Amino acid sequence: MKILFLHGWQSSPGGLKPSFLKDHGHEVLNPHLPDDDFEAALRIAQAEYNQHQPDVVVGSSRGGAVAMNIDSGETPLVLLCPAWRSWGTATTVKANTTILHSEADETVPIADSRELLRNSGLPESALIVVGTEHRLADEESLEAMLKAVENSGQSTGGDVLIRPEAPEDCDSIRDILIAAFANHPYSHQTEHLIVEGLRADDSLTVSLVAEVDGNVVGQIAFSPVKIGGRDHGWLALGPVAVLPPFQRRGIGQALVNEGLKTIRDLGAQGCVLVGDPAFYNRFGFRHDPALRMEGVPPEVLLCFPMFDEMPKGTVTHHPAFSIGE
Ligand SMILES: CC(C)(COP(=O)(O)OP(=O)(O)OC[C@H]1O[C@@H](n2cnc3c(N)ncnc32)[C@H](O)[C@@H]1OP(=O)(O)O)[C@@H](O)C(=O)NCCC(=O)NCCS
To answer: Nearest C-alpha to atom 21 of ligand 1 is from which residue?
Structure first.
């Protein structure tokens, strides 16, 4: 891969991290960025980007802020402990960004990267917590950087388009839900009826589909929930399904990530679901003892508060969820 590596303050080209990437077979462009002039550093990085059109831009510390403040189109970013608070004006990053940060970083606190995720509507899975200090110079961090760089170019499993459902998708959505839940151990095989019930009641707040080569192969639904008998602006995620032959290609994760971004943009206060933590933890979902649901084991009732407020009480889905029970 062709990598534009933007070094940090008081660092210089040819350091440990770009050398590590080079030693693993990548072409690394590693311009000198002046310490005393951020604007000049931006101009140099932008010119290098424009001239070489790299596959990925990696920015370390102040170089991370440089990466965030140049125009790099759709090119993925890998940011190492980015010092965005101290340098430049950008406070968000694009969707295809991966951040590596050490919990023990005393130079740039990891809280800054968590804030960057929140600002950008990115899931927690976009932050890789690794290393023992700011420089991320240990072997594990170098390997994690290499992996993040090499994975950064991968799309979500082919040419996948995530878009809102259209009226003509209804039959495909039904077929997907029936096929995906056919052998699901905890399903009543009523998911297609749930979605149709929500749609008929105008309570399908968000329904996104995944399209591959013009065919709809996945769907995700969000609908309003009550917590403690009240509407707190929270939504339930579910069902989410991908046609079996298309599973394990990243489509389910793309649906969840795009769905969360969409409901956040709509002003949702949080999201709740019943599901397997092994799948949902990666997006930032957690169990919280403030929430309960009749007949549901606590460990599979998961929530994702989008703001500080955490409502308390019993979660009640839309009545369509009881269809066929
Ligand atoms: C769950 C589902 C939507 C995931 O879609 P997908 O396109 O296969 O998922 P992705 O390829 O994006 O993600 C794959 C990852 O999810 C994990 N995963 C997939 N289904 C999982 C499940 N039911 N439980 C736990 N993990 C699961 C895989 O192990 C993989 O993890 P890894 O990257 O760490 O190896 C899909 O498998 C599906 O339709 N399943 C049947 C219906 C269902 O169970 N829906 C969820 C409950 S509402």
So the answer is: 279
Residues 238-257 pLDDT 10s: 999 998 878 888 899 999 99
Nearest to 241 by CA among 197, 202, 297, 184: 184
pLDDT at 85: 97
Q: How far is the CA of 280 from the centre of ligand 1 (A)?
A: 9
Distance CA 259, CA 280 (A): 13
Q: Where are the domains of the chain?
A: 2-152, 160-322
pLDDT in tens, 69-103: 999 988 999 999 999 999 999 999 987 899 999 99
Residue ranges around ligand 1 (CB below 6 Å): 180-181, 184, 238-242, 247-253, 275-276, 278-279
What DSSP assignment string belongs to 215-249?
Answer: EEEEEEEEEE-EETTB--SEEEEEEEEE-GGGTTS
- Closest residue by Cα to atom 35, ligand 1, is 248
What residue's CA is closest to ligand 1, atom 17? 279
Best mutation site among 178, 181, 242, 317 for ligand 1 pocket (most ligand atoms within 8 Å of CB): 242
Report the nearest-CA residue for atom 22 of ligand 1. Answer: 279
pTM above 0.85, yes or no: no
* CATH entry 3.40.50.1820 includes domain 2-152: yes
* pLDDT computed for residue 170 by the predictor: 97
**Atom 19, ligand 1: which residue's CA is nearest?**
279
| Segment 117-175, tens digit of pLDDT | 888 877 677 899 999 999 999 999 999 999 999 888 664 445 789 999 999 999 999 99
Q: Give me the pLDDT at residue 180, please.
A: 95
Residue range 160-322, CATH number: 3.40.630.30
- Alpha carbon 106 to its chain's center: 26
**277 close to 285: Cβ distance less than 8 angstroms:** yes
CA of 273 to the centre of ligand 1 (A): 14
Q: Tell me: the pLDDT tens digits for 188-201?
A: 999 999 999 999 99
Q: What angle do CA 136, 141, 143 make, to 5 degrees?
A: 140
Which tokens go with 208?
């996104």
